[in-house]
Write a structure and sequence with these properties.
single chain, 559 residues, alpha/beta, TIM Barrel, eight-stranded mixed sheet, 16 helices, 32% helix, 19% strand, disordered N terminus
Length: 559
């Protein structure tokens, strides 16, 4: 049971809040919080009724919100109440009668109208460049107030990370931004490049991991399916993991292979890295490519549960779509990818290359299941591009080369995705960016509310919010003041006033694969560090332009 920090409230305040938290106690079972809402749609949601009483936290307050259905990020049952905000932090959560506050003590008093008030959402796996699009409206419109970047093994260099953080902070992003250090980037910086691991190279790489985390990175990301990550062996993964563990960070891994016949071995490799290094490990965008067997999903979740029983902290994030999105290099054989000279390979082994690409695409649901998001054929499927050019589809790929485009691949099963997203110890991510040609960057969190909470009741609102805030904060260390300074992820005294206000039934993800850059609707208000960053009724949003600077967001650094 989580309670307000005792150093922020006196004994009388704690006694005042006891009925609130007693009413909010519940346990999560199969993704739903007992004692929580019976109607996930929002308007008729049950909430623990608590008597309104004046808070005993001295004012003034910049913001007071009352008459809200408070979902605090813990997974406990929602309750009717409100919050008080001072200097960017929450100073009170509980029953709130605005008439007792005194008009001269409140900058803005807001009647929530029975809407859900929740912690700002945290995107466990985001992409983008806050120096190019600091406004981040695609995230804010979903209620995302903190984005974690440096994913899949790619990040600023260790020697540049501190500067990037400072530059971002000076620019003023509209969301909070944190980084992981990218293993692939640091491997190139170490001089190992695409070569096999060596003892000397491992030590140089480990030193760069330490440097990046000491500069503020929250952990390390891996991209073991990508060129710079492919050569990493067990010794290398254990060694870099030791540096992460020594700094209480997390390793987030784009695993080596997510295909149905290899994903269990890839997950075992991640767990072994945690076992040998002592670091917390996390599977990025957990999924199965070209698999639809529920038993496989259950075996993978059982792998993770067995590891946790052993004392290895393992978790995952999931986005709620059945298409992935990455470079077309994943279709090419290793011998045609960096560090190979592609032009030389194409000239010497063109027939062999075409045969490989034809078989690879055919085994991934055919050319109709590959939708280009960038490059000369953006918006077309591989089949459509081939028809337009009058060429075999493999020839289109041969001409483009492994670095020629990025694409969406419709290769995942909906039932398995649902199983992963609703499991214990998984959180929600977008794996998206403001410019990506995939709707997940504009709609993932809103889709979870619309589909999983409102339409299909696969998650209670309390469980969904936990997967989008508190649990993510716990996994990445954002809820720990000793590690990051200002804690985030919960509606609790002392925590950053990152908050969202919405009716679940009004939340709609608008983006699709034909129009992937449509902003989500339904977030009534979004606050970042106590400052309103997004607001408006459905269809009339108000927020920053992508290039807007001077926002209230902060850089989240590991201390």
């Amino acid at each position: 049971m989580h309670r307000p920090a005792s150093h922020l409230l006196n004994r009388a305040s704690l006694l005042l809040l006891l009925p609130v938290f007693a009413a909010g106690c519940g346990t999560e079972t199969d993704g739903r919080a007992s004692g929580g809402s019976g109607d996930a749609g929002g308007g008729a949601m049950a909430g623990a009724a608590v008597p309104a009483a004046p808070p005993l936290v001295p004012g003034p307050w910049e913001l007071a919100i009352h008459n809200a259905r408070v979902v605090d990020g813990s997974g406990d049952a929602l309750f009717t109440g409100g919050v008080l905000v001072h200097e960017g932090r929450i100073v009170y959560v509980g029953p709130l009668d605005p008439d007792t506050l005194g008009a001269d003590m409140v900058g803005e008093s807001m009647d929530a109208g029975g809407r859900v008030l929740a912690p700002g959402f945290i995107d466990a796996h985001a992409h983008g460049d806050p120096l190019q699009t600091p406004g981040f409206p695609s995230f804010l419109a979903q209620g995302i107030t903190t984005v974690l970047m440096g994913q899949d093994g790619g990040s600023p260099r260790a020697s540049a990370l501190a500067g990037v953080m400072s530059e971002t902070e000076a620019l003023g992003p509209w969301t909070n931004v944190g980084w992981l250090a990218g293993h692939g980037t640091l491997r190139m910086e170490s001089g190992m490049g695409y070569a096999a691991s060596t003892p000397e190279g491992r030590e140089r790489l480990a030193g760069l991991v330490a440097q990046a985390m000491d500069a503020g990175a929250l952990g390390l990301s891996l991209g073991l399916e990508y060129d710079a990550g492919l050569p990493a062996d067990a010794e290398e993964l254990a060694r870099v993991g030791e540096e992460v563990a020594a700094r209480n960070g997390i390793i987030a891994s784009h695993m080596r292979n997510e295909d149905a016949d290899k994903v269990e071995a890839s997950l075992a490799e991640l767990i072994e890295q945690g076992r040998r290094s002592g670091a917390r490990v996390h599977a990025s965008h957990l999924k199965v490519v070209l698999g639809d067997d529920p038993a496989l999903a259950d075996r993978m979740l059982a792998q993770m549960e067995a590891a946790r029983a052993e004392g290895i902290e393992v978790s995952a994030d999931v986005y709620p779509y059945t298409a992935s999105f990455t470079g077309i290099a994943i279709l090419f054989p290793d011998w045609a990818r960096p560090p190979a000279d592609y032009d030389a390979v194409r000239n010497a082994r063109r027939v062999e290359l075409a045969d490989h690409l034809r078989a690879r695409v055919a085994g991934r649901n055919g050319p109709e299941a590959t939708l280009f998001g960038t490059g000369p054929y953006a918006g077309m499927t591989l089949a459509e591009a081939a028809e337009a050019e009058g060429l075999p589809y493999e020839e289109i790929l041969v001409r483009l080369g492994p670095g020629g485009a990025r694409a969406a691949y419709f290769v995942m099963d909906d039932g398995m995705m649902v199983r992963f997203l609703t499991a214990d110890h998984t959180v929600v991510s977008t794996d998206g960016s403001p410019v990506m040609g995939h709707p997940r960057g504009y709609g993932a969190f809103s889709l979870v509310i619309r589909r999983f909470v409102v339409e299909e009741e696969l998650l209670s609102i309390e469980a969904a919010v936990r997967k989008m805030s508190g649990l993510t904060a716990d996994l990445f260390g954002l809820s720990d003041a000793e590690r990051v300074g200002t804690p985030r992820g919960y509606l609790r005294p002392g925590f950053a006033a990152d908050m969202v206000l919405f009716h679940p039934a009004e939340v709609v993800d608008m983006a699709d694969f034909e129009e992937p850059h449509q902003l989500a609707r339904g977030m009534h208000r979004v606050w970042v560090n106590g400052v309103e960053a997004w607001g408006g009724e459905a269809g009339a949003e108000r927020g920053p332009a992508p290039e807007a600077e001077g926002g209230p967001g902060q850089v989240v650094r590991r201390r």
